[in-house]
Amino acid sequence: MNQRPSPAGKRQRVALRAASAVWHRSVGRWAQREFAVLATLALAAAAIWAFAELADDVLEGETHVFDEWVLLALRSATDASDPLGPRWLEELMRDITALGSTGVLTFITLAVAGFLALDRKSHAALFVLVAVGGGMLLSTALKLGFDRPRPDLVPHGSIVYTASFPSGHSMLAAVVYLTLGALLARVQPRLVLKLYLLGLAILLTMAVGASRVYLGVHWPTDVLAGWAVGAAWALFCWAAALWLQRRGQVESPGPDPESAAPEPADD
Questions:
Q1: Which residue among the candidates 24, 64, 156, 218 is catalytic per the annotation?
Q2: Domain at 210, CATH number
Q3: N or C: which end of the chain has fewer CB within 10 A?
Q4: Number of structural domains, the chain?
């Protein structure tokens, strides 16, 4: 004859199931976040490797033919001083290239840091300032180290006053836009919004780099190197932010969609 379970036994089983569900959710989130950090660091390492390979080819002179071919392909066949396309396109490229300028990127960075500070996330604001400031210092150090001359095949469509390799506009656009895009994407609950923000950040970064080549102020390999090292720096900073946030040393830029989601009710 079957015995009906006692109320105490039922409560114990419900408590065990609840504890097991909480444990599995906690372990799952921990594994997901650890994987995110490791994957980010792996991508940063790949970007650094790509930059190192490209820098070696530039120093050996193996990219000269490619660089010249791309620059001349963007110019009129009869007049190297005339970029392809109508005059408004050249002016548009100057507008786009300004999005990677030190002045514009500094303004955007200070605006974001100010917003975070007003939102009482002072450590996150400081982290953004250090990440972007560190990227600027790294760009300057790399330019001084390689000291590659600017292109002299075509007239420059913009005023330049630093060395060519790597492209500072391309690198700093990657640092700022990819970092901010990742921060904004992290707090969005919908995948389509995450992809939109990250895609917009990548598009801005690529547009700035392409404008530098179109205006004749950078060799194509300067831009490729700037993208590589800029992406590596942004990914490294993003991994560091995740690590510091989990330890409570840097505030999250907003509510975590996973933690903010309501827990399913037990039957």
A1: 218
A2: 1.20.144
A3: N
A4: 1
Strand-pairing partners, residue 75, are 83
Residues 6+ apart with CB under 8 A from 251: 116, 120, 121, 122, 123, 124, 245
Query: For the whole model, what pTM was predicted?
Result: 0.79
Does 31 map to a domain?
no
CA-nearest of 47, 116, 95 to 210 is 95
Residue-range definition of the domain harbouring residue 183: 44-255
pLDDT tens, 167-195? 999 999 999 999 888 888 877 778 898 89
In a domain, 261, yes or no: no
- Stretches where the chain sits below pLDDT 50 are 1, 22-24, 26-28, 30-31, 256-267
User: How many angstroms separate the CA atoms of 255 and 15, rounded?
Assistant: 29
Cα–Cα distance, 175 to 141 (Å, whole number): 15
Cα radius of gyration (the chain): 25
pLDDT of residue 7: 59
Does residue 64 have an active-site annotation?
Answer: no
Catalytic pick from 24, 123, 156, 169?
Answer: 169
Q: Is 218 a catalytic residue?
A: yes
Q: Please indicate, yes or no, if residue 100 is contained in any of the structural domains.
A: yes
Q: How many residues does the chain have?
A: 267
